[in-house]
Design a protein that fits this description.
The complex is a heterodimer of chains A (about 110) and B (about 120). Chain A is mainly beta and about 110 residues long. Chain A is built from no helices and eleven strands. In chain A, the strands form two sheets. In chain A, strands 2, 4, 5, 9, 10 and 11 form a six-stranded mixed sheet that branches. Chain B has no helices and eleven strands. The chains are: A mainly beta (about 110), B mainly beta (about 120). Chains A and B meet through strand 4, strand 5, strand 9 and strand 10 of A and strand 5, strand 9 and strand 10 of B.
């Protein structure tokens, strides 16, 4: 079942601008992850933020997590045309018998115009 | 390359055909996953194998049959598919099914078209 839901569904910005994508989820999680997918390709893991963390950085990426609001945001600063892709949030939660399951949202399609 | 290799990249098959998708990883991971990605839908988890044992079958129709002969290889056998099964099939791997520290590693996917 769907857990994360990204907003907006599509985003178009000029090169050099910042891009912000949001993710909301419904149940308790252990961590939240962001992935990127270029058209028709596999997903690439970008960043993982644990439920006890509030903010994390990796290069031009900044992720925040607010567990009280069950929401996360991904900020890409100084965007480049090469950042054009779909971005997915995924929540990892305990699924029973010592196992954890990763559940994905529908994604945000980002277009960066040169 | 991510370390997870899927073949073939593209597959067109008739509804009466039998075909197989292959996934291979040499990352030392012990959990492998099949996901289905259809247009405008979230990724759907189909099957999970942990240390070669199937641990999840997400109510997938029996026309999809997974096989995991060892921790490095995963197959998805396809038989009498329907046009609505056309999608991008993604394989992923992770250290195991415990809480991840580094996320999943995905292959590039197989684009399946059922005619």
């Amino acid at each position: 079942s769907q857990q994360g839901e990204e907003d907006p569904q599509a985003l178009s910005i000029q090169e050099g601008e910042n891009a912000t994508m949001n993710c909301s989820y419904k149940t308790s999680i252990n961590n939240l992850q962001w992935y990127r997918q270029n058209s028709g390709r596999g997903l690439v893991h970008l960043i993982l933020i644990r439920s006890n963390e509030r903010e994390k950085h990796s290069g031009r990426l900044r992720v925040t997590l607010d567990t009280s609001k069950k929401s996360s945001s991904l900020l890409i600063t100084a965007s480049r045309a090469a950042d054009t892709a779909s971005y997915f949030c995924a929540t990892e939660a305990y699924s029973g018998a010592g196992s954890y399951q990763l559940t994905f949202g529908k994604g945000t399609k980002l277009s960066v115009i040169p | 390359e991510t370390g997870v290799t899927q073949t073939p990249r593209h597959l067109v098959m008739g509804m009466t055909n039998k075909k197989s998708l292959k996934c291979e990883q040499h990352l030392g991971h012990n959990a492998m996953y099949w996901y289905k990605q259809s247009a405008k839908k979230p990724l759907e988890l189909m099957f999970v194998y942990n240390f070669k044992e199937q641990t999840e079958n997400n109510s997938v129709p029996s026309r999809f049959s997974p096989e995991c002969p060892n921790s490095s290889h995963l197959f998805l056998h396809l038989h009498t598919l329907q046009p609505e099964d056309s999608a991008l099939y993604l394989c992923a791997s992770s250290q195991d099914q415990g809480l991840s520290s580094y996320g999943y590693t995905f292959g590039s996917g197989t684009r399946l078209t059922v005619v």
